[in-house]
TrEMBL record:
Residues 24-58 are annotated as: Disordered. Catalyzes the removal of elemental sulfur from cysteine to produce alanine. It supplies the inorganic sulfur for iron-sulfur (Fe-S) clusters. Plays a role in both tRNA-processing and mitochondrial metabolism. Involved in the 2-thio-modification of both 5-carboxymethylaminomethyl-2-thiouridine in mitochondrial tRNAs and 5-methoxycarbonylmethyl-2-thiouridine (mcm5s2U) in cytoplasmic tRNAs. The lineage of its organism: Eukaryota, Fungi, Dikarya, Ascomycota, Saccharomycotina. One of its GO terms (cellular component) is mitochondrion. GO terms for molecular function: cysteine desulfurase activity; iron-sulfur cluster binding; metal ion binding; pyridoxal phosphate binding. Its EC number is 2.8.1.7. InterPro entries: Aminotrans_V_dom, Aminotrans_V_PyrdxlP_BS, Cys_deSase_IscS, Cysteine_dSase, PyrdxlP-dep_Trfase, PyrdxlP-dep_Trfase_major, PyrdxlP-dep_Trfase_small. Belongs to the class-V pyridoxal-phosphate-dependent aminotransferase family. NifS/IscS subfamily. This is Cysteine desulfurase, mitochondrial. Keywords: Iron, Iron-sulfur, Metal-binding, Pyridoxal phosphate, Transferase, Transit peptide. It comes from Komagataella phaffii (strain GS115 / ATCC 20864) (Yeast). GO terms for biological process: [2Fe-2S] cluster assembly; intracellular iron ion homeostasis; mitochondrial tRNA thio-modification; tRNA wobble position uridine thiolation.
Length: 465
């Protein structure tokens, strides 16, 4: 009886929402408690198990008892202010923004252009450089395939890294089938690319370097400024997948010499199925569009815009700027607390760079515990052991493997995602739960017993198979 459920605070699905954000030090309004009955919970009763999280104005009884949500890299809860904005487009503002002959079209178009500016402002871009898409997956496909196909007569080579998101890697693989050459750069132990190696891999026929900004599994921030400089010096376009970075770390496309950027709305408390691609105008980046049609979005992405989603995305971007300082301080503080609370246990380690990282994503390994068993033991907390799209396969993370983690370590790692609506009480609860359940599982482990007896596991000759 220690499940805690919550969702975004101060929610008013249909009314105007006001969040008191004055005073960055004030704790956020907690969400309601409810009780879960996860099976393993009976075996591992936590200390001080009754967690009271106060009252909420929102009735989410519709969804039953739910775990604490710490999977912010998979997606974020919609900010209620975003929903308020979107509702205008499902009711009054239903005009097609591309209808130029009447006011229904004009009024919607005006709102779309406002949203475009909010998004451009986050990254120091011109609104004309923002192309709306269905999300970062589409933007990654559009950038990588688009540039490669446009310049294919003279350039056949692309450089990327081994730790990119699957949608980028799969786009690159598809290009390989079409005769392009792809270099998949390894990363250092801290998850960062080696700049010298990157520069050495650039060839005369390289058209694009694609390196993600923040890694979705381990939260490390790649050295974007240095990569941008190298690319500009060699006159190669630089694309970055900023799905996990946009609105969360400072990004200026001009300062960083970024030519293309993939952005996702649902990682910043906006609607799902929505995103954008930043495409530089000067010097101009040319793309072969993936979707052809009426020529919307500068001819790069045809189709009538999903206006409620565009407006919601715009509002989420506006809020990302407005709340930036507060969110950053708040998330960093909770992250530090969670990290201290977990890493104080022996045989735990934080994966990826300790210094170049986004604090809202912590990836921690628990030696002598199997990751999937730990996830099962933590059913009252929604977590992931890797990226959402591969977690179903139970395969260990290719990202952790690229960092040189051995199989055991890769299998025993968990990602903790903290966001705008995470509460301090939830973090306290999670620290307690992790400590107890890890200890419980280790006590069941013969390896742990051997370690306790002082046996060096490396000295053991395991029977092969
Ligand atoms: C780094 C990265 N790139 C791309 C994506 C895909 O984004 P979307 O869901 O908007 O297509 C994600 C989301 O999982 C991501 O984390
Ligand atoms: S097979 Fe590589 S981690 Fe298990």
């Amino acid at each position: 009886m220690f499940g805690v459920r919550r969702s975004c605070n101060k929610a008013s699905a249909f009314g105007k929402v006001v969040r008191n954000i004055s005073g960055a030090s004030s704790a956020r309004t907690p969400m309601p408690t409810s009780v879960s009955n996860a099976s393993l919970n009976d075996a591992v009763p936590p200390k001080g198990s009754a967690v009271s999280l106060g009252n909420s104005k929102r009735d989410d009884s519709l969804y039953g008892t739910r775990p604490i949500y710490l999977d912010m890299q998979a997606t974020t809860p919609t900010d209620p202010r975003v929903l308020d904005k979107m509702l205008e487009f499902y009711t009054g503002l239903y005009g097609n923004p591309h209808s130029s002959t009447h006011s229904y079209g004009w009024e919607t178009e005006k709102e779309i252009e406002k949203a475009r500016k909010y998004i451009a402002d986050v990254i120091g871009a011109d609104p004309k450089e923002i192309v709306f898409t269905s999300g970062a997956t589409e933007s990654n496909n559009m950038s990588v395939k688009g540039v490669a196909r446009f310049y294919k007569k003279t350039k056949k080579h692309i450089i990327t890294t081994q730790t990119e998101h699957k949608c980028l890697l799969e786009s690159a693989r598809r290009l390989q089938d079409d005769g392009f050459d792809i270099t998949y750069l390894p990363v250092n132990e801290d998850g960062l690319v080696n700049l010298e190696q990157l520069e050495k891999s650039i060839r005369k026929d390289t058209c694009l370097v694609s390196v993600m900004a923040v890694n979705n599994e381990i939260g490390v921030i790649q050295p974007l400024e240095e990569i941008g400089r190298i690319c500009r010096n060699h006159k190669v376009f630089f694309h970055t997948d900023a799905a996990q970075a946009f609105g969360k770390i400072p990004l200026d496309v001009n300062k960083l010499n970024i030519d293309l950027m993939s952005i996702s709305s649902h990682k910043i408390y906006g609607p799902k199925g929505m995103g954008a691609c930043y495409v530089r105008r000067r010097p101009r980046v040319r793309l072969d569009p993936i979707i052809s049609g009426g020529g919307q979005e500068r001819g790069l992405r045809s189709g009538t815009l999903a206006t409620p989603l565009v407006a919601g995305f715009g509002e989420a971007a506006r809020l990302a700027v407005q709340e930036y300082e507060y969110d950053t301080k708040y998330i960093s503080r909770l992250s530090q607390k969670l990290m201290n609370g977990i890493l104080s246990m022996e045989h735990t380690q934080l994966n990826g760079s300790k210094t170049s990282r986004y604090p809202g994503c912590l990836n921690i390994s628990f030696a002598y515990v199997e990751g999937e068993s730990l996830l099962m033991a933590l059913k009252d907390i929604a977590l992931s052991s890797g990226s959402a799209c591969t977690s179903a396969s139970l395969e260990p993370s290719y990202v952790l493997h690229a960092l040189g983690a051995d199989d055991a370590l890769a299998h025993s790692s968990i990602r903790f995602g903290i966001g705008r609506f995470t509460t301090e009480q939830e973090i306290d609860y999670v620290i307690d739960a992790i400590n107890q359940r890890v200890q419980f599982l280790r006590e069941l482990s013969p390896l742990w017993e051997m370690v306790q007896e002082g046996i060096d596991l490396n000295s053991i000759e395991w029977s092969g198979h």
